[in-house]
Amino acid sequence: MTKGQDTHASLVDAAISFASEEGLAGITIGKLAEKVGMSKSGLFAHFSSKENLQVEVLKGAIDRFVVRVVSPALKAPRGEPRITALFERWLAWRDMLPGGCIFAVASVELDDKPGAARDLLVASQRDWMETIATAARIAKKEGHFKRDLDVDQFAHEFYCLGLGQFHVSRLLRDPKGDQRARTAFDRLIRDARRHTSS
To answer: Whose CA is closest to 53, among 25, 20, 94, 22?
Structure first.
């Protein structure tokens, strides 16, 4: 990695942390320049526009998510253990940035704002849901989940549990948020199993 690439990567890291607290809309080249102690013109040379900065932040966050959540979970045994690992790593993701899950923050800001940043966020979340659905398909093949399980419905409910847990923990500050999310996840798994246990 060249010095310029190293500087760019460091700036993206700082911007990801900043955006997790201030939101994508709250991060500008001027504010980031002030935070990292760099001139606006120097920072502009790296990103050239606020939209490019937002896209770079999301790309960097997606890379982090894959490294810290998806890749480690995919090392778990195929089937139900892997799905549990995906869920647990996702719960832990909330605490890996100072402001929590940057994707949850960005989804509120970008849901009705067309553009490159929204397109990237939508693609990343669809990829995440497909990762969950694929893990559920594998669980069916392994005989852990029932053969007629609707994996897309399973992925939808898994995804909603994770997002709900973020809001309950971060917004409502419910100390039982994680416990309640795990209880709901356990019920989802029980319903999906080939042989439902009581």
So the answer is: 25
